[in-house]
């Protein structure tokens, strides 16, 4: 038996022995709230229209008088758009038809729908956290908001990535 095959068999046995039972309704991570009740318990204001939490970005912490949108998703919405069709992106985060406005969520708020007209038929990433300066397109601001809310997992990911990068760079540069 080869060493790689033995290691794979050992890992499979360990994974089978230590596997925890899966509970119905459980989520993948203990750090990230998944329901509106969990977001409220964590101290965030939650939309009554769609249950999205109001998460301030680092920008909103420096400028507290800027309006804070609700963030229905801490990541991009990937949508296939058609050329020359007008899409209205929801900037308040309260529409039930995310990422597009349903003309109900933005009423009585300081936010207005943002029109987007694609130049060609393609798949576009729309911002889910509603904090992107390149509205309505996704530019990575959602990940900064996610890292601000989930400090420990973000620190772990950054440490692991830095460690792997440092080990690989040391291995490549060592004479």
Automatic annotation (TrEMBL):
Q: Name one GO cellular component term.
A: mitochondrion
What GO MF terms are annotated?
2 iron, 2 sulfur cluster binding
Record key words, sorted: Membrane, Transmembrane, Transmembrane helix
Under InterPro entries, the record lists: CISD, MitoNEET_CISD
| Membrane spanning residue stretches | 152-172
Question: What is the name of this protein?
Answer: Uncharacterized protein
Please give the organism: Polarella glacialis (Dinoflagellate)
């Amino acid at each position: 038996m080869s060493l790689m095959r033995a290691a794979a068999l050992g890992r499979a046995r360990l994974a089978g022995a230590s596997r925890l039972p899966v509970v119905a309704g459980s989520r993948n991570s203990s750090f990230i709230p998944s329901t509106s009740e969990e977001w409220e318990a964590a101290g965030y204001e939650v939309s009554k229209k769609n249950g999205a939490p109001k998460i301030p970005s680092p920008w909103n912490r420096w400028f507290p008088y800027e309006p804070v949108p609700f963030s229905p998703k801490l990541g991009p919405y990937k949508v296939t758009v058609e050329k020359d069709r007008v899409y209205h992106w929801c900037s308040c985060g309260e529409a039930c038809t995310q990422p597009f406005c349903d003309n109900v969520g933005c009423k009585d708020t300081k936010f207005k729908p943002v029109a987007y007209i694609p130049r060609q038929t393609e798949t576009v990433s729309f911002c889910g956290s509603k904090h992107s300066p390149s509205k309505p397109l996704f530019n990575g601001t959602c990940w900064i908001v996610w890292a601000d809310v989930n400090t420990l997992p973000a620190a772990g990911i950054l440490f692991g990535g830095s460690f792997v990068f440092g080990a690989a760079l040391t291995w490549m540069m060592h004479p």
